[in-house]
Amino acid sequence: MASEEAVLSVILIQVRDLDDQMIEHERMCISRRIGGAPFRVHNAIGEELKPEFLDGATGMIIGGSGEYGVNDVASQVWL
User: How many CA atoms lie within 13 A of 32 on its CB side?
Assistant: First the structure.
């Protein structure tokens, strides 16, 4: 019986302003850490996140700016 190789399907949820200069840097760092495997990117500030985004995903990484935090009342608009 042949073994099936797991396919990596990572989603990066970025919580950054759309003009944040660190967007591409963060994406490059994630790419390097997951060995260059392709990954999907969604921005919690620039788009409505939907549960369907997780379909087929084997992992999710949440990245972003210190400008937003789940503990900060001012940030709860995007939660």
Answer: 6
Specify the pTM.
0.77
Please give the C-alpha separations between residue 57 and each of 4, 39, 44, 63, in angstroms, as whole numbers: 17, 9, 17, 16
Amino acid at 9: S
> Which two tokens mark 65?
């700016």
Q: Tell me: the pLDDT tens digits for 20-51?
A: 999 999 999 999 999 998 999 999 888 998 99
Length of the chain: 79
Q: What is the pLDDT of residues 57-79, one digit of tens each?
A: 999 999 988 887 767 776 666 55
User: Distance between the two ends of the chain, CA-based, in angstroms?
Assistant: 46
